[in-house]
Amino acid sequence: xxxxxxxxxxxxxxxxxxxxxxxxxxxxxxxxxxxxxxxxxxxxxxxxxxxxxxxxxxxxxxxxxxxxxxxxxxxxxxxxxxxxxxxxxxxxxxxxxxxxxxxxxxxxxxxxxxxxxxxxxxxxxxxxxxxxxxxxxxxxxxxxxxxxxxxxxxxxxxxxxxxxxxxxxxxxxxxxxxxxxxxxxxxxxxxxxxxxxxxxxxxxxxxxxxxxxxxxxxxxxxxxxxxxxxxxxxxxxxxxxxxxxxxxxxxxxxxxxxxxxxxxxxxxxxxxxxxxxxxxxxxxxxxxxxxxxxxxxxxxxxxxxxxxxxxxxxxxxxxxxxxxxxxxxxxxxxxxxxxxxxxxxxxxxxxxxxxxxxxxxxxxxxxxxxxxxxxxxxxxxxxxxxxxxxxxxxxxxx
Length: 398
What we know:
Number of strands: 0
Order of helices and strands: HHHHHHHHHHHHHHHHHH
Number of helices: 18
Shape: globular
């Protein structure tokens, strides 16, 4: 639902987010909202992965049906369609498909590397502090009991410790994107309709991919979540322009705002005693459970309503997007893969400190701030290195 800025937008997000980590300068035509909100989603994901942390009460999951995952998946589909759609026009279907699969392979390698480091971190803490509860809490019990089988299942993306589910979802969505992109370029509306039909069938018929152990399935069902990714791609290839009049309609914006307020009341009633019982039992039986696994319609509609309101309030040419205070978040959004992986590692470290050392309020604030600062530092380092590489390439081209 984030409309493109101008003709140069297609290269900019992907160059920054997927390949080189370009600088967020308005002169490039880059839609800074893409990087800004993906960076914000990464910060929220990190905070949500730290249990018993006061700051995760201020993330979107506590004030509506959807959360940071919807933001991340939609923007990923949007930017993937922008960059690879242009490449498909210039380089052809085969070359572009190879580039998409190469990117999916890079994500897969990153997942395996993160899996090994993450499990090593968890195993060290369990052995060092003799606390086996971490194994069950972090989903590492199977690895410790049968590491050979668990490792093979991880290579098949069927075994994923806690907090690592988003990356395998993105790998599968991107690996299947070449034919989807080809169809979106030729029959965008029919492709979106087919994607929606698959989404509906996944929810109604229980379609999902098998997980490990055998009685489990994927926490983020790719067969359902593909619709949000494809919808992002559809918007990135011109769909958002076609929706422009609808999005700017006062009636649509008002209805979206009403839905956001209603979902706010429902969700807050789950954890704030004064609102307990405000949702009638009959309504509760109708709307619950609001499945995150299958991207329940209430979650999907909530994200769409949120996107409509955000687009209305934050136009593409908003001057505040260029303010230095937002630069850290934008840089994190430009290096989503590295920042996400680093955030998973940091979240368990923060969880360990809060559980085993000091769990006070000030320590929660310090660890949350330190984790975000380290994520920003990593993104700044990657942006600097990308700039050096571009400078060297430019000098060689002279």
